[in-house]
Amino acid sequence: MSAPIKRIAFVGIGNMGWPMAANLVKAGFDVAVCDAVPDRAAKFQDEIGGTACADAAAAAKNADAIVTILPTSKHVAAVVAAIKPNLSPGALVIEMSSGVPGITRTLATELEAAGAAMIDCPVSGGVPRARTGELAILAGGDSALIDRADPVLKAMGNSVHRCGGIGNAQAMKALNNLVSAGGFLIGIEALLIGQRFGLDPAMMVDVLNASTGMTNSSQKKFKQFVLSRRFDSGFGLDLMVKDLGIALEVGRDTATPTPFAALCKELWASAATLLGPGQDHTAVAQLSEQLSGTALGGGNSPAAE
Description:
The protein has 305 residues and is of the alpha/beta class. The protein folds into two domains: 7-166, NAD(P)-binding Rossmann-like Domain (Rossmann fold, 3-Layer(aba) Sandwich), CATH 3.40.50.720; 171-292, N-(1-d-carboxylethyl)-l-norvaline Dehydrogenase, domain 2. It is built from 14 helices and nine strands. The strands form two sheets. It has a six-stranded parallel sheet with strand order 3-2-1-4-5-6, sandwiched between helices. Helix 1 (17-26) runs parallel beside helix 6 and helix 12 (237-253) packs antiparallel against helix 13. The termini are far apart. Mean pLDDT is 95; it is low at 298-305.
């Protein structure tokens, strides 16, 4: 039986990674952190605790588990290449990025040959639930490995959903984001139609949330980030476009016709081009606003956290 996980190397303390790593420190794990942004790891050590490391290779030394949550699978592959020489026998890589399933499967094979292992555990819930430790965590890989990681995962989330073999969780995450992205766009279009008809968009959100049109976007995004004009949910527009591309890739690999998904991805990609880099994903509403020549107004709608 594998020893319990005590020391964790956490690679990537960005918007999501910071609160997730903080919850691991709070849960009593010995956490070593690193990030591509200079001085962020040192700031984490000063404010939260843990140990700041210069890079992933240094953080991975003597670690029982290595958590990666990075922008793309390309970044994860680079980290895996860097840490392989420093991995302890039996070390477990918990890959929590929204990555490409095929690349993750290849990396898992490479790690197995090096005497380590990998599971994929992307998350859903956004920054607010990362802060509270209430993320939904999707898990793919060998059941015994997920069992070993369970205390780590439960320090960051309140539900773990086993999706099957390695890469399956990342496929599920991309498909979840496809559904979320489609629901967001159709909801914004409905609000624009209603406002031009004479309905108050804030009232419309309340009705949607009490009716069959309720979605995660109507509950947690429309008033908070669109009608408030904040557009600062903490999840990037470019990352959503990336995830939609992964979902379509899974569709192509399975020879599944995806006409609506393709249109959805095209609209999100168009918004990213129109608005430029560095935009929050909720700013995609501005594409629909520009197409209609109408800006949504929320009046005094509260920007709930």
